[in-house]
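Narrative summary of target 7.
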Amino acid sequence: MHGLTEKETAINTTGVALPYQVRVNPHLDDSYAESEKWARAMGMLITDRPMPGGIWKPERFQRIAVPELAAKIAPDAGPADLLLINQALVWIFAYDDYFTLAYKQVRDRQGGWEYARRLCDFIDTDPGTSVPTPRDAVERGLADLWPRLAAGRSSYWRREFTRAIHDFIIGAALELENICDDRVPDLIHFIKLRRQTFAGGTGACFAAMSTGAEIPARLRDTEVVDSLLEAFIDVMALGNEAVSYDMEINDEGEVNNLMLVLRDLTGDDLATAHKITTRLIVDRVAYFNHAVKTKLPQLAANIGLSPTDLAQMKVWVQGAESYLSGLYDWYDSSARYRATSKAPDARAI
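Modeled conformation, tokenized:
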């Protein structure tokens, strides 16, 4: 369907080959050292002289392969924007892993909510808003990153990125609720939650950074663009479910994973859950393609969208397609989800 093919079912692969070309940013080599340098400066790496809130040993951080991810999802970004995307991704992984270690694995419901609510104060649509004094590496990273990331961006871009990060932060606390309640979420609840917990809205913002094109103002609040963005985020998020299953379920004690949700719903084995997950991804990509090829042109004709705005939308779509192809290539090649030990803690990760 729409150029997609299904791969052999296996855990640690997405099971889907997307119909978009994978390209790599030519500035990749320049970002390796800078990525680790920033993580170290923020105190995210556990070293002989760690700062409060250290998260990863250097070798574990390198396994995530953030520079490769950034270079694949933003192949057209200039050096400065590529570095900012790189650092933003480092921060996203840092919060995800830190919250898991500090709150999910010990089932600290109250502490998790207090931390999440406080962290939201570090990012506002106005990058000049004062923030609390950072107490750990995650807070320090967001306080350092956001003013630089937001500088020169449109109010729309800042609003969308802020909303995505707030959803991501609070989403982790909502996942913690399910863990503390020993509750595997139902399918409808899970899909809604996963759109929030994946920081999916950042993908649209990164596509704009890579291409220099935003979704035109006349299209932003339309049902067509809303449904296109939902499909875009679903493809991003659902591809994570198979590759992260072993790490999340077997190592971290998670319950918020689509394949676990499907096994709980159907009573089938893991291979069947993976096959259903693959089918859902294929269908969401097909809808994304349908929206791009059919619904957007119809809408543009109906509202009399200018050729300039139409061209801008097409460039953004190309950036979104590059984002998805790069993300899936990273999913299927990164060592992040190939856990090397069981039950990692803050001293071993």
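Residues 1-10, 340-349 have pLDDT under 50 and may be disordered.
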